[in-house]
Specification:
Layout lengths: L14 E5 L3 H12 L4 E5 L5 H8 L4 E3 L13 E4 L4 H14 L2 E4 L12 E5 L2 E5 L6 H14 L3 H19 L3 H12 L3 H6 L4 H13 L16 H4 L2
């Protein structure tokens, strides 16, 4: 089966539902909240202690009962994570009728999408998937990759976010702009951040790297909150 990997954006504006309140549901809820889900409801008569605390703190809505037909109306995305396959399949059937994106844990045939294992460093994300066939392998690789990609990558993405408006003005030609970004990606920025370079040193390095591509006099680079490392997510 062919798949098309994507990243969902603006989940804070969508209703998301998790059916189930056990350990697997807890893991999915944590991932959804990290991904920005802002209107997340859990449908389950019981919750893990962690999920109970989330509900008490108002981070999630707890609908304290079993799933009922009609619960997915108006939702954008749903994860069925109960230990009862009949309930999971009923949830999936409603999701199809209501055009809700559905993931049934450990049941790829009923899934519109697969949850991946993720290494997240601020705006830098590595996603590892196995088409739902071997999540344990994805989790194993995530742990290995996490050791090699530290918070410096989040700092770099934070810098890139600040730089984007200047890049568009300075390099209006898309092909030239892509080459400039590539030069930055292949430059010495990550080692500099790891060594604790100052804001000024980082921007001086960026300016030197971009100078070779500049089609006109370099403009003033945007100001970054200082220190950069503390400002990064």
């Amino acid at each position: 089966m062919s798949t098309f990997p994507v990243v969902l954006n603006n989940l804070e504006q969508q209703r998301v539902i998790v059916v189930g309140g056990g350990a697997v549901a807890e893991e999915k809820v944590q991932s959804l909240l990290e991904g920005g889900a802002g209107s997340l409801a859990i449908i389950s008569p019981e919750l893990t202690p962690v999920l109970r605390r989330m509900a008490a703190a108002g981070r999630v809505e707890w609908i304290a009962r079993e799933y009922r037909p009609g619960d997915l109306r108006g939702a954008f995305l749903c994860i069925a994570a109960t230990d009862d396959s009949a309930i999971n399949h009923a949830v999936a059937a409603e999701a199809k009728r209501e055009r809700v994106l559905i993931n049934v844990v450990d049941d790829p045939a009923y899934c519109d999408f697969y949850a991946t294992s993720v290494v997240r460093r601020g705006g830098f994300t590595i996603s590892i998937g196995t088409d739902g066939q071997m999540p344990a392998l994805a989790a194993h690789l995530r742990r290995r990759l996490a050791r090699g990609f530290g918070p410096e990558y989040g700092v770099l993405i934070h810098l890139a976010r600040q730089l984007r408006p200047t890049m568009s003005r300075r390099f209006p030609d898309p092909a030239q702009r892509r080459r400039a970004w590539q030069a930055l990606a292949e430059s010495n920025l990550i080692p500099l951040i790891r060594r604790g370079a100052s804001d000024e040193q980082l921007w001086e390095h960026i300016e030197r790297t971009l100078a070779r591509f500049a089609a006109q006099e370099p403009g003033r680079l945007p100001t970054i909150p200082s220190p950069v490392r503390e400002a990064a997510p």
